[in-house]
Please model this.
Amino acid sequence: MFIQTETTPNPATLKFLPGETVLGSGTADFPSAEAASASPLARRIFAVDGVVGVFLGRDFVTVTKADSVQWDHLKPSVLGAIMEHFQSGAPALDQGGAEAGGHAAHDGPDADIVVQIKELLDTRVRPAVAQDGGDITFHGFDRGIVYLHMQGACAGCPSSTLTLKMGIENLLRHYIPEVVEVRPVA
Model:
């Protein structure tokens, strides 16, 4: 098994491409070892000292390291953990594991606007951020402000504010005049 790695805009995060399907659909975000109970793959990666976040996509695994650790020391152990997992034949998520990848539900007077926002996110934004090892999902819309949840390489990325303000906000405002601003949520 050959696992490729790619850098991401977030220097604390690397994208690992095992050459196999990781999740059949959706994404799964594990911002801590405690959150990884439903994922044998994430648990195995968190067993590597220095790992502070794991994000699973369709065909990639994004791993975030602690600031005190260097990738040169951590990367071989993470590669080994991913390889061991795929060789074991275990699923990435246990039955009933929290596979997400969806937007928050929204109904009410702005439902038509929210449908447009989600459509633009799904067709224009999410494929681009998946290339960088992350995901951005709709969290809410209130009085012209769009709230987005950033995951994987996007969470904590130094360029995430620029991505939100100059990229996503401009895109949404161009197509949807009711959008005034885009803000991240934790």
About this structure: The CA atoms of residues 121 and 137 lie 7 Å apart. The beta strands are 4-7, 13-17, 28-30, 51-56, 61-65, 134-142, 145-152, 181-185. The helical segments are 40-46, 71-88, 111-131, 160-175.
